[in-house]
Amino acid sequence: MNTKERILDEALTLFSEKGYTNVFVGEIAERVGIKAPSLYKHYKNKQAIFDAIIGEMNRRFSVTADMLHIAGNDAGKDAGIYQEMSEEKMIELGVSLFQYYLHDDYTRRFRKMLTIEQFHDKALADTYMKQYYDDPLSYQGMLLGMMAAQGFLKTDNVSIMTLHFYAPIYLLLTVCDRDPDREEEAIRILKEHLRQFDQIYGRKKK
Amino acid sequence: MNTKERILDEALTLFSEKGYTNVFVGEIAERVGIKAPSLYKHYKNKQAIFDAIIGEMNRRFSVTADMLHIAGNDAGKDAGIYQEMSEEKMIELGVSLFQYYLHDDYTRRFRKMLTIEQFHDKALADTYMKQYYDDPLSYQGMLLGMMAAQGFLKTDNVSIMTLHFYAPIYLLLTVCDRDPDREEEAIRILKEHLRQFDQIYGRKKK
DNA sequence: GTCTATAAGAAGATAGAC
DNA sequence: GTCTATCTTCTTATAGAC
After folding, report:
1. Domain that includes residue B103, residue range
2. Nearest CA-CA partner of A191 in B173, B140, B159
3. Is the CB of B38 under 7 A from strand D?
4. Average pLDDT over chain A, rounded to whole?
5. Closest to B115 (Cβ–Cβ): which among A115, A157, A175?
């Protein structure tokens, strides 16, 4: 990683912990191992660092979104995939996805930075909404909808079923972001949630 | 409202919109209609204003919490109250509660300020968690648990049922905080959520 | 590209008159 | 309690040598 990239990386870490205004240019430079003025050879000013981070974030978000769309559509074509999915397997899958979102370095720092900075700028609030509300409900709705169409789930309102699937996951993620010590508890609850979801909406009614 | 109270009020508004560091003492003073130095006759410094707001917030939160506990216990003693609660009545109640949380001036500003400032200080993160995770799940769990005990709801896991009730409400609240234009949509979804919740966990299975 | 020195300006806070 | 004037400190950013 070159200096220009390291600046972005350290800045992202600091912004996600303290917010834009509470991070000083000298602080970023120190972490990179240079003095503040040197930093201005790489970026025009502090705002340009922030903008570059936002740009990179949007790029990564849209790459992930595309991947999910493709994966979702592929899964839809292969109807057999769901047949093999037992409750335990579904829970395992849900937990790994949760842990990825929680621990992946970029995902976690972007999420915390957006949480702090979302009210500074309407565009950031929109990005937050898209990433943590519209897109998840859209992708997961697509998958759950296909499972319903194939008779593996039972509902007459796919969007609300999707909301019931996703909202607890979102809530538990916010818990762990604020208090990492509660991760174990959150994962226990997540598993119970997924199990109960499967009982409610699954093929075999309890 | 005297000057000391007006300072707190305007500061809370500004902090909830821009965050502590992005609000200048002169800005608060201007809104109150005085000059910055006058403000120091009422509060030792900027931090003292913030601390006073946090103190007031915690006071109001605990008053509400006590009220909910008492109301919940009273409701528990009066078993008949739930018998009269039709699905439509339950939806109406849920929507009014949602709109109260969304529009009540203090509730809304405290929530936005906590969202922005929560990572500056572990105590604030703890307050956030208590107010928007532990307490709601505890109160609502108490109520739903009593309804289950009396046979009006059916589940073998009250905490997860409560999570299924509350998590979508929390998610929809974050949507409206970030984009007030989506309130109408959110309330439509909220109603569908409550209706489906009643169908899933209500006495009469669909 | 990195450094030292420094300019330029902003923001919090105080002094002291009224 | 409120004001004007001012101090002090902090922070961003630039100048110019190496």
Report:
1. 68-201
2. B159
3. yes
4. 94
5. A115
